[in-house]
Amino acid sequence: MKTKSRLFLLLFLVITTSCKEKQIKTQPLQKINVYEVNSKTVPIYEVFVGQVFGQKDIPIRARVEGFLEGINFTEGSNVKKGDLLYTIDPDPFREAVVAKQSMVAQANTIVTQKESDLKRVKPLAEIDALSKRELDMAQAQRDASISSLEAANADLKIALINLSYTKIASPIDGIIGRTLAREGEFVGKNPNPVILNTVSDINTIRVQFFLSENEYLKIAKEYSKNSSQQEREKKSDIQLILSDGSLFEERGKIDFIDRNIDTSTGTILVQATFQNPDKIIRPGQFARVKIKVKDVKGALIVPQKCLMELQGQYSVLVVNEQNKVETIQVEVGEKIPGFVIVKSGLKNGDRVVLEGLQKARPGNEIIPVVTDYKSQETKQ
């Protein structure tokens, strides 16, 4: 009886296993998205953080001391060269001008007197009625009076200049900022405001950023390989990434590289200029400068999401000609937004598993669906 029970149980297990094998064999193949690798020329970019300056950022200074009498502009508005911006109480400087004019008049009187004395002494000295010493003294007094007159005129000129400094005009066309002093404040001497404002010309902007010594050498060597000026200008095309991640529509060019590496930081200052016709970019903003370093010709790229890393070794899942998945070891190179250049391990036309890495196990047969892949990072 026990033998029959065992035979029945064994027969049941065989039938059940056979049914499961049939179910596995009849399971449909899965569709999995793959990325087809094709060689192309890939631009390599570097991104650096920079700060924005106007083409001209002119500080408006109080060049004389005094109480601020008037503010003749609207903060944040456009101003023209020569527009009156500030007035400082001119009364003390007018009085100084009057005093200097009086000294000039006095010096003129003395010159006239000494000239007259010299004219009387000369004829007498010629007939030896007076000594040569008296003639020399009269000549010296006349010359000294002329020097005093010149000094008085110089003092008057300085007084007039100081009086003119009580009216502060815009030195350029541009946008004026927030005033740092208000009417009634004493200005022109620390700790009181000396710099009252800044006027900026932002039709063109300057973006300054720093390169490390290694970055500078890499870029400089790549640029020096271009024999033609046209190619160099093309390569010096620079983009500006704004703080919201968008690309500024105007492209710029490098127009200044500092003469030396800063020994304290190991970096070199670089400046690029951009046209700013809509005046969207303002001084003080931080932006990222995007520079094309080189073009890699015949590069094979795969999406970064396809890579699998284990102890510093990279691999991808590739679908072979029999539509079976296999693991391929690869050597990676430069990274670009959303992708990475594969230096070895893949060839043109290979199909790399893009999505469903957990389902596409090595040895499994699948239905590959070639899919175009666009990374979100490439939109910048």
Describe the model.
- The protein has 380 residues and is α+β, with helices and mostly antiparallel strands.
- The chain folds into 3 domains: 31-42 and 297-379, conserved putative lor/sdh protein from methanococcus maripaludis s2 fold, CATH 2.40.420.20; 45-54 and 203-288, Efflux pump adaptor protein, beta barrel domain (Elongation Factor Tu (Ef-tu), domain 3); 90-165, Helix Hairpins.
- The chain is 29% helix and 37% strand.
- It has 5 helices and 19 strands.
- The chain has helices spanning 2-25, 91-126, 132-164, 213-224, 229-235; strands spanning 31-36, 39-61, 66-71, 78-79, 84-88, 167-169, 174-176, 186-187, 195-212, 238-241, 253-257, 267-275, 286-303, 308-310, 313-319, 325-336, 339-344, 351-353, 367-370.
- The protein has a 15-stranded mixed sheet that branches. Strands 6-5-3-8 form a 4-stranded antiparallel sheet, with no helix packed on it.
- Strand 14 and strand 15 (313-319) form a beta hairpin.
- Helix 2 packs antiparallel against helix 3 (132-164).
- The longest helix is centred in the first third of the chain and has 36 residues, at 91-126.
- It is elongated, with a radius of gyration of 42 Å.
